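User: These chains co-purify. Model them together.
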Amino acid sequence: MSLSYEGASGGRIAALDDVSLSLGPGVIGVMGQTGSGKTTLLEVMAGALPPDAGGMTFDGADALRGDGARRLRAAVGMVSQIPERQFFESTVEREMAFGLIARGMDADAARMRASEALSELGLNLDELAMRSPFSLSGGQQRRVAIASVLALRPKLLLLDEPTAGLDPRSRSACLDAVRMAGRSGATVIVASHDANALAAVADRVVVLERGCVTLDGSARELLGNAPLMREHGLEPACASRAATALRRAGLAVPGAPLTAEELATAIAEGRGLA
Amino acid sequence: MTDERIVEARGVTHAYVPGRPTLSGASLDVRRGEFVAIVGENGSGKTTLARHLNALIPLQAGELTVAGIDAADHGRVWELRRICGMVFQNPENQFVSSVVGEDVAFGPRNFGASEGAARRVALEALASVGLPGFERRDVHELSGGQQQRVALAGVLASEPDVIVLDEATSMIDPRGRDELVAAVRRARVERGATIIWITHDMELAARADRVVVMRAGEVVAEGAPERVLTDRELLSSAGLEPPLVVRTWGELVRRGVASGPAPVTVEGLVSLLCS
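Assistant: Joint model of the two components:
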C-alpha cells in the first residue's frame, strides 16, 4: 500500500510507501519515529483512508470496496492518539452505549458490557455515568475511549499510543486489556513509542521509517536489541538498554532481557550466581 | 540554582465540581533554577496545580505566587504568564495559529517584540527543538510529537523564567524526546530557567533535582530522587511504581546478588555493579 499527501510546498509527501504486511491474531506493535507513517497505517487499516496504490484484504475479501469494506468497518475498532477527538456524546454512559446499541444490543445488555469494559480499564461506570467525557482527566479520557472500543469486541483493534499520559496503574490495566484482546483471537495493532509497554504485550513488532517497513520480527528480537533499536532512532526497552550499558562496562549479561525480573536473572547469571 | 523561591504555593484548593476538590490544600516551594519533577496518578491534581501556576484557572482558596506575582491578582495575569510558560499534554489546546512560524512568534509578539525580532526568536526556538524549516507548515499536518515540540518552541520563544511541562513528551519518539529534553536543559543552563515537569516517566523523574509526589490533591512527599523513587511503600500508596532500575536492584537484593541502597538510573546501576 502507498499513500501520499500534498505538502505545503505543493509537492507530494509519501506517508506510506509500498507497505506490505500480513497480520494474524495476536498483538503487533508498530514503532517508528514521529511522522514515520504509524497513524496513517492505522487509519488505512481502519478503512478511514483509501491508499493511493496497492490493495488490502480483510478475512480474504477486498477491504477497500463493496461487501469486504463493509465487513471491515463492522469488525474494526480504533482508538486515536487524542481520545477526546472521538467523543461526541454528552455523558460517559451514552458514549459507551452508542456503538453497542448501534450494533443491535439492547440498553441493559449494553450497560452491562460497558460496565465490564470500563472495569477492565480500572474505571467505574456508576461513578462516571453522568459525567461529560470532555470533563474527565486526560488519563480517564484515554481509558474511556479504549473501553468504548473494547466493549465492541472488535476482530481488528487499532490503538494509537494507548498508554500515553497514563499513570502506572492505569497503564498496567490498559496493557492487561490489550493482552487479553490479543489472546481472545483478535488482531490488535498498537502504534507506540513506548518500548516497555510493547515489551509487555506484543508478540511481533514492525518498524516504519518514512512510510516503509524496515524491521519486522519478534518483540524480543527487536525490543531486546538496544543497538539495533538505537540505529533506527528508537528507544529499546529499558531492561535492554541497561543490559547493553552493563555489557559495555564489562559485565556479562546473557540473553535479551525485557523486564526487571529478566534483567536481574541475566545479571545473576553473568556473575555466576544464578 | 539559587535559594530564591520562585514558586510559593500554600494550601491551594480547587474544585471543578462543588464539593469534589481536585486540589486539597497543596503546598509547594520551587527554587529559581531548580528542576522539579511532579509525579502522581491520574486525577491526583498535578495538571490542576500546573494550571494555577499559569493562572489559567482562578484561585479558589490558598495562596500562590510566581516570582512574587500573586496568581489571584487579575491585573498581573499577563505578567505572570510571561514569566511562567506552559506546555500541555495535548498541544492542539494551545495553538493560536495554524501556521507553525506564526504560532511560535505569537508569544514574543504579544509580549511586545517587533515583527522582525519575534520572527527571529521563533526561528531560533524551532531550531532548538529540532524543527528547523518547519515555520511554514500547517500545525494540523504535523504528527502529535511534532506538535508537542512546536508547543515547546512557542514557550521557549517567550523566554519564560519558569517552564511547566505537563506530560510534554508523551507522544514523541525517542529522538524527538531527546531534542525536547536537550532544549529544556539548554534553557535551564543558559538562562537559569526553572523547570517543573509533570511526568509518569520515572526515568525522567530520576534526573530531576527533586521529586514531588501528589496524591488525592495534596503533595504527600518530596525529596531527592534517590530517596523518593526508592521508597516502594510511598510510591505504591500514590499509585506509582519505582523505575525499572530500582525494581531490578530489589530483585538482586532479594536473591542475595546485591546489597545496599538502590540506584535510580542506568548509569547508577552500572557504577554499582561494575565498580
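Chain A has a mean pLDDT of 90.
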